Amino acid sequence: MNHSVVLGIETSCDETGAALIVGGKLVADRTTTQVLHEKYGGVVPELASRAHEQLLPAAVAGVLNDADLRITDLDAVASTYGPGLAGSLLVGVSFAKGVAAAAGKPWIAVNHLEAHLWSIMLTGVVPPLPFLALIVSGGHTLLVAVHNFGDYYRLGGTRDDAAGELFDKVGRLMGFPFPAGAAIDREASEFQGSPVEFPRARLAGDPFSFSFSGLKTAVLYYLRNRYPQNGNRFDIPAPERAAISAGIMAAVADMLADGVTNACDAGDYRAILATGGVAASRVIKKRLGDMASQRGIPFLTPPPALCTDNGGMIGYIGWRRLATNQYHSLSIPVDPSAQLFSHQL
Ligand code: KG4
Ligand code: ZN
User: Fold this and answer.
1) Domains in the chain, please, with CATH?
2) Which residue's alpha carbon is nearest to atom 7 within ligand 1?
3) pLDDT, tens only, 292-305
């Protein structure tokens, strides 16, 4: 058993995350979501970078304190080098490199998407290989065939907006605070009537990809034709807003389930995994769970705190790479558009 101690740092978007992994287990996690973006209706990159700079030192000191460890106890420091917002990545990577240099320990660059794939391991559940992964968040909607640790094949992804981005954009029009996904999901899962019918995009010749911009436009037109506009939102009576939420959720769940079904038909997977903030949706979890059980394979999804961005998932990848001495030079830069390849850095 490898008892190494790894500090994981996540700053790719609007979560400031620090966590400690000891022996592959999450022993401390101080991840916070930056609330300052709420009033802008979206993440403001410059403000996110500044907030990371302010929040990260206390988060790192906090996890060391929680676990009663010092910097000298660390065996490595891992941080997200991409994909994500350039300025935010720079804050986390620079800080991580500094801690690694001060401790005289290696630094490990972690791909954020790879970290999402394996956050499930922090729950103690080991997914059977190969598995099909749906990474679905505010920044990504991606279908990946996972053959092994480090061996990934990108099947498809969104051609335009990410699913979470769609929820956040239409949610704003409907008067929900940012980010709107959880509120739309709650209204949809409590709604009893018949949902508003919205179109589902299907991409000819590309069965594993998604498109959500048509749905966004359809919702905008639906609202414009029916409700008075008040600034950048529409005044919608509560029961109607719930029917619209249910319609949006049903359309997104259908499109995601379609892509997952097509991928399952084309491959031989032993489990379906959903991760990323949108995988916290009760409606989507139910839909994908039913699909997996019809096929007789498990549906796996981490609890919401491990679905959304967090330091633990970064530390876990660092811990795995440390075990095989995969470190990185401190001169490796951030890569805001890093891809998920079979071969990492
Ligand atoms: O993974 P995450 O924290 O950050 C990104 O990497 O984007 O995902 C945030 C996204 C937001 O778009 C938010 O609206 C959405 O996840 N979200 C949800 C739910 N909780 C968060 N969407 C649907 N249902 C939820 N329960
Ligand atoms: Zn993420």
Assistant:
1) 5-118+306-344 (3.30.420.40), 129-297 (3.30.420.40)
2) 138
3) 999 999 999 999 99
* Residues with a CB atom less than 6 Å from ligand 1: 13, 137-139, 164, 167-168, 179-182, 185, 276-278, 280-281, 308-309
What digits encode the pLDDT tens for the residues 53-111?
Answer: 999 999 999 999 999 999 999 999 999 999 999 999 999 999 999 999 999 999 999 99
Task: Give the ranges where the chain is alpha helix by DSSP (H).
Answer: 45-66, 86-103, 112-118, 163-173, 181-190, 213-224, 238-266, 282-295, 304-307, 311-323
Which-ligand-closest: CA of 48? Answer: 1
Task: Write down the pTM of the prediction.
Answer: 0.95
Residue corresponding to tokens 């990260």: 56
Cα 144 to middle of ligand 2, angstroms:
15
- Cα separation, 285 vs 279, in Å, equals 7
51 CA → ligand 2 middle, Å: 18
